Amino acid sequence: MRFLIFAASHRPESVNRKLAKLAARQLQASNLAVDFAEYREFDLPLYNDDIYGKSGVPASARIFGERAAGAQGIVISSPEYNWSYPGTLKNILDWTSRMKPNPLAGKTALLMSATPGSRGGIVGLTHLKTPLEAMQIFVFPKVFPLGYSEKAFTDADALADARQRQRFEALVEEYIGFTRKLSNGG
Ligand SMILES: Cc1cc2nc3c(=O)[nH]c(=O)nc-3n(C[C@H](O)[C@H](O)[C@H](O)COP(=O)(O)O)c2cc1C
User: Fold this and answer.
1) Which residue among 19, 140, 143, 166 is least packed, with the fewest CB closer than 10 Å?
2) pLDDT of residue 36 exceeding 80
3) Rounded to whole angstroms, how far apart are CA atoms 47 and 150?
């Protein structure tokens, strides 16, 4: 099985990127293939129906769609912006949704979020489920909201708290099983 993994943040020191990297490392340790994307690879103009009508889906959205199509699962670690998820991510999803056939149909998704506050971006993740489900993705019912993100990682970018580390690893393991079931072993 193959997984497309990315964080919805452009910041080089992004805590969501650290979380996405942790998932990538665990999947690789389980001998699963990982396609780790940097968010800037999917930079796009704002969705515009006129541009779509005249020139179709832009190249970076098509690249996103093709990379997602080549995977069984998509792991997204997203910051929370104003109690929701970033508009840039909605924009990527909106452009991708104009591709035919839908490259995301039947994929699974694991959602994670790291924020400096106590709730760890849980509200943003709840919002993010909706467009993914509209695009026929099987969103794993459990999510990983990581609060107090500035203190959550060790210098080696591992989760500092042992219980949190166990919870994260168990979640990724369960998600692998979920994806295996839904993609007939991939
Ligand atoms: C426009 C904007 C809105 C934000 N709104 C929230 C919010 O609603 N809840 C929250 O916990 N953090 C909020 N934050 C803080 C982000 O969660 C924080 O910057 C996050 O750590 C960024 O993730 P990154 O390190 O992966 O870039 C907001 C940040 C920005 C730039």
Assistant:
1) 166
2) yes
3) 33
Mutate to test the pocket of ligand 1, among 16, 82, 144 (most ligand atoms within 8 A of CB): 82
Ligand 1 centroid from CA 53, angstroms? 34
Q: Write out the residue range of the structural domain in which residue 146 sits.
A: 2-182
Q: Token match 């168990």: residue?
A: 170
Which residues, 6 or more positions from 22, have their beta carbon under 8 angstroms from its beta carbon? 157, 158, 159, 168
Question: What pLDDT does residue 175 have?
Answer: 98
Cα 9 to middle of ligand 1, angstroms: 10
Asked if 123 contacts 113 with a C-beta cutoff of 8 angstroms, the reply is no
- Into how many domains does the chain fold? 1
Taking 70 as the threshold, does the pLDDT of residue 185 lie above it? no
Residues in the ligand 1 pocket, defined by CB under 6 Å: 7, 9, 11, 14-16, 79-83, 114-117, 121, 149
Mean pLDDT of 168-182: 98
**CATH number of residue 68's parent domain:** 3.40.50.360
Protein residue with least CA distance to atom 23, ligand 1: 79
Region 117-128 average pLDDT: 96
